[in-house]
């Protein structure tokens, strides 16, 4: 392989090399051993105290199978350019800031440069908020990347035909390996030269899975059960085999922040993994045949029920739609961890949802499937199922417990085995207390918008507030 010509100026890529090492899950010692240099040399490169030589750039590209142009891309890591742009702010107009000094700071002190850039970004967002007459914490596309990612997915109806088609084709290849077992995806990887190995936590360094590109190994935490191991293999397949398709979808949209783009990329990888392990046509047929029984479907596809529930919320193939679901996951404090809008279910963007919804009592009954008919103030009825699930947190740490709820409109509930088992006596609920006009609700925490409360000097009722008639 011909060596590239010597660069016209030293190539300092410390932050990029550090980020690459962390993405690979490597210590400085491990990267140094694979590159044939000392750990101290890697540390100096990451601190921009040594330039990246042409020889080492070639070794990096060969060892970790990287595109050299991508690795050395200046538009991503040119701290000097980004810092110079920030320092052109009128805030610094009276300060003499020679370009050479700016370049020296960015080259020699990448950590301080990144800190200054973050501070300037926060200042710019707060200034913009004040100029627009709103509070600095009010959500905008740039300050609410999760909301932007969620809207992107919802605007497309949670359906990505090219991703599903490629995943289905890959699933067919995997199924051709041999008898139906949960080991087939790992066996398929072995035919491509990638070994799947279970490793102790001391090797995994907090990761559930790690792809060792140098040795062509997919390393999995040995404490993971078979269902979680299979899911991690599915994610690896999505990030590698569906990489081009995912990148094309993300590049086709202009996001307000890199974080929003990464969240969309992560969501698409999870969709791809689900589509590989639960191919659409077979899964949709099984869902109808099993009347959307989560445990039965989990057994059929050798996955955890939570992955099945998330897959059910993406059955939007034109002409072969499943039950349209609204899906939400919350933590112990009621914070929304993830949400997929659908089914016409009203959900409060700001503030908590109705405390009468079983979503909020599931934590008191871990592992139990809570089924409930819901009736909104205007008479719309929905059916909800809620259940807790545990995610691994790491060696020696208790699992992270969350609650997942699936909600569908009443007209679709008859297709669910859960709705057939309970009487259709709905619980009166609201979107949130501020939007609910039910005056007799004992669980109310705030008065609704547009209603004045009466004094309670002489009479105190069980309800938190008594409202005037006007």
TrEMBL record:
Coiled coil: none annotated. Keywords: DNA-binding, Transcription, Transcription regulation. Belongs to the short-chain fatty acyl-CoA assimilation regulator (ScfR) family. Residues 128-147 are annotated as: Disordered. InterPro entries: Cro/C1-type_HTH, HTH_RamB, IrrE_HExxH, Lambda_DNA-bd_dom_sf, ScfR_C, TransReg_Diox_bact_type. SMART domains: HTH_XRE. Transmembrane segments: none annotated. Residues 17-71 form the HTH cro/C1-type domain. Signal peptide: none annotated. This is Helix-turn-helix transcriptional regulator. It comes from the Bacteria. It comes from Novosphingobium pituita.
């Amino acid at each position: 392989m011909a060596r590239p010509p010597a660069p016209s100026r030293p190539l300092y890529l410390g932050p990029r090399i550090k980020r690459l090492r962390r993405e690979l899950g490597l210590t400085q010692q491990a990267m140094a051993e694979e590159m044939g240099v000392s750990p101290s040399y890697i540390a100096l490169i990451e601190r921009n105290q040594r330039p990246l030589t042409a020889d080492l750039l070639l070794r990096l590209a060969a060892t970790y199978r990287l595109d050299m142009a991508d690795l050395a891309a200046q538009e991503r890591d040119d701290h000097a350019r980004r810092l110079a742009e920030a320092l052109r702010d009128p805030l610094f107009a009276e300060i003499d800031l020679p370009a050479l000094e700016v370049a020296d700071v960015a080259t020699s002190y990448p950590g301080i440069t990144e800190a200054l850039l973050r501070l300037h970004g926060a200042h710019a967002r707060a200034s913009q908020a004040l100029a627009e007459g709103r509070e600095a914490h009010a959500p905008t596309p740039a300050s609410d990347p999760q909301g932007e990612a969620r809207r992107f997915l919802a605007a497309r109806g949670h359906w990505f035909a090219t991703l599903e088609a490629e995943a289905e084709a890959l699933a067919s290849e995997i199924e051709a390996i041999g008898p139906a077992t949960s080991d087939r995806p790992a066996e398929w990887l072995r035919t491509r030269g990638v070994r799947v190995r279970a490793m102790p936590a001391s090797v995994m360094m907090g990761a559930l899975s790690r792809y060792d590109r140098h040795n062509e190994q997919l390393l999995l935490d040995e404490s993971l059960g078979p269902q979680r191991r299979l899911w991690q293999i599915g994610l690896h397949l999505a990030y590698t085999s569906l990489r081009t398709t995912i990148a094309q979808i993300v590049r086709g949209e202009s996001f307000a922040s890199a974080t929003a783009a990464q969240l969309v990329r992560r969501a698409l990888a999870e969709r791809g993994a689900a589509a590989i392990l639960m191919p659409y046509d077979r899964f949709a047929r099984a869902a109808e045949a099993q009347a959307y029984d989560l445990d039965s479907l989990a057994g059929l596809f050798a996955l955890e029920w939570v992955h099945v529930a998330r897959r059910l919320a993406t059955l939007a193939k034109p002409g072969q739609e499943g039950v349209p679901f609204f899906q939400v996951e919350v933590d112990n404090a009621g914070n929304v961890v993830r949400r997929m809008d659908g089914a016409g279910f009203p959900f409060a963007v700001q503030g908590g949802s109705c405390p009468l919804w079983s979503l909020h009592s599931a934590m008191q009954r871990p592992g139990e499937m809570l089924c409930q008919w819901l009736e909104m103030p205007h008479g719309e009825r929905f059916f909800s199922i809620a259940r807790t699930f545990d995610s691994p947190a790491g060696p020696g740490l208790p699992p992270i417990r969350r609650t997942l709820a699936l909600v569908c409109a009443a007209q679709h509930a008859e297709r669910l085995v859960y709705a057939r088992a309970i009487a259709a006596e709905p619980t009166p609920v609201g979107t949130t207390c501020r939007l609910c006009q039910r005056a007799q609700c004992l669980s109310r925490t705030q008065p609704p918008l547009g209603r004045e409360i009466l004094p309670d000097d002489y009479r105190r009722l069980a309800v938190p507030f008594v409202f005037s008639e006007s």
